[in-house]
Specification:
Structural class: alpha+beta
Largest sheet: 2 strands, parallel
Strand order of the largest sheet: 1-2
Shape: elongated
Order of helices and strands: HEHEEHHE
Oligomer: single chain
């Protein structure tokens, strides 16, 4: 995997081969060569920080393996909420089926509407004019605090 190769190259390039050991795998399945570690790096965040994520495994790893002064990476996250108006996007995705280049495809509109509301959208950047108000922090996770 390219990430593994890149990480190993960076460690070598910085002369840290003798101080850094890479362990790849599920925390429940790997065996550590030491009792405690200085750093745990994990891509644990899921949708809304905690959905479909590995947060429970990372918290278990923190409790079992991280030294008291150890570092979790990432360690601090915040989830923000802001009011949006997605009328233009809704029209592009749902109302579009009323007239597709002169052809009525209204029979597909219920499926488009269901898909629009049932599935999270990960590949779209929110446009500035869609934001109706200030955002606020609704959740903060500090992985250093038990």
């Amino acid at each position: 995997d390219i990430i593994d190769v890149a990480a190993e190259k960076v460690v070598h390039e910085n002369g840290a081969d003798d101080r850094v050991t890479f362990l790849k795998g599920k925390v429940e399945e790997i065996e550590l060569p030491v009792d405690k570690v200085d750093v745990i790096i994990s891509e644990w965040m899921g949708t809304f920080l905690v959905c479909e994520s590995m947060i429970s495994s990372v918290l278990d790893a923190r409790q079992m393996y991280l030294k008291p002064d150890g570092l979790m990476m990432p360690s601090l996250t915040k989830l923000f909420l802001a009011p949006l108006c997605l009328n233009k996007y809704y029209k592009e995705r749902v109302e579009f089926w009323d007239d597709v280049y002169g052809v009525s495809m209204q029979s597909l509109k219920p499926l488009a509407k269901k898909t629009f509301f049932d599935r999270a959208i990960y590949d779209r950047i929110i446009e500035e004019d869609e934001v109706l108000g200030e955002s606020c922090v609704i959740m903060t996770l500090d992985m250093h605090k038990p």
